[in-house]
Amino acid sequence: MNETVKCLIVGSGPAGYTAAIYAGRANLCPVLYEGIQPGGQLTTTTHIENFPGYPGGVDGTQMMADLRKQAQEAGADIRVGAIVKADLNKLPYTLTVDGGHTLAAETVIIATGATAKYLGLPDEQKYAGMGVSACATCDGFFYRKKVVAVVGGGDTACEDAAYLSGLASKVYLVVRKPYLRASKIMQERVQNIANIEILFEHNAEGLTGENGVEGVKLVKRLGEADETHYVLPIDGFFLAIGHKPNSDLFRDYLDTDEAGYFITADGSPRTKLPGVFVAGDVADPTYRQAITAAGSGCKAAIEAERYLVMKG
Ligand code: NDP
């Protein structure tokens, strides 16, 4: 074992950094490993206007840099690197960093986030930050009175389409099947909103545009005799085909739902293992907001501090 730490935080989104601020101020000398995407999902959005305290909004990367600095000021030791192995069989827990460094941790806060799924089209990369988004709540505001497409037929897609319909002039819901998978209530909701048009049996196969998204290349009834290809003019392309929680490393030890989100009793950060806490999107299939992640990071650090006090 290379090192023993009181509090190890895994992940550097708003949940991880907030946990680090609280754990640092509680003298837990937290060590935080940033993971493969330092700053987390927020660094992939352009401008954040829904985080309280930033009138006029804030650049996502800047906000995460501020949170990181604040965590360091609070005494957190923030390190580049990803945890690649976890042994939670016994206390202290053993975690291994890429490169082989091992840590014995008295408490572990898992804040590894979730990753939005993309279709895998090269154009999603090409137009990243230029009309492609996987977060309607984050980026919808930029499409006021514009035309957008939302891909997906589940609850998230319906919720996003309904949200965007209040901002955009027109929302196309691009659904690959001839029906929606979403709950009945969400289906009815989108069907009753005048500026939402559902395009059943449609797949997106690419995007067009000179300086940003100007259209989506669609294929209707893929593989059928009447298969049709056409370009639909849009300004924004939203993915809502699900998220993948980054819980794989810990799934052998902790309870998760079918999709891999951690499940905790009464939704608190406490898990069934003493001293192991979860925070942020990896334990939240429902809200997935920066502010809710930050709040849960705070709770996890408070729980870790109380746990260590009780343990003596
Ligand atoms: P889901 O997995 O439920 O739905 C994903 C949707 O995306 C499906 O319609 C699926 O199509 C479609 N899809 C997946 N891959 C592709 C692809 N490659 N091309 C085109 N379409 C694709 O994910 P959600 O994020 O919607 O929901 C996750 C969970 O969270 C669910 O349990 C949901 O009920 C819950 N949730 C609840 C909410 C609420 O209660 N307010 C809000 C949001 C989510 P297909 O149907 O053909 O597989």
CATH-derived architecture of the largest domain:
3-Layer(bba) Sandwich
Find the count of extended strands (DSSP E, 2+ residues). 19
Give a list of the ligands: NADPH dihydro-nicotinamide-adenine-dinucleotide phosphate
Structural class from helices and strands?
alpha/beta
Rg value: 21 Å
Residues in helix, %: 10-25%
The end-to-end distance, rounded to whole angstroms, is 23 Å
Count of the domains: 2
**What proportion of the residues form beta strands (DSSP E)?**
25-35%
- Assigned CATH class of the largest domain: Alpha Beta
Largest sheet: 7 strands, mixed
* Low-confidence blocks of residues: none
Oligomer classification: single chain
Corresponding CATH superfamily of the largest domain: FAD/NAD(P)-binding domain
Order of helices and strands: EHEEEHEEEEEHEHEHEHEEEEEEEH
Give me the CATH fold name of the largest domain.
Answer: FAD/NAD(P)-binding domain
Mean pLDDT: 95
Envelope shape: elongated
User: Total helix count?
Assistant: 7
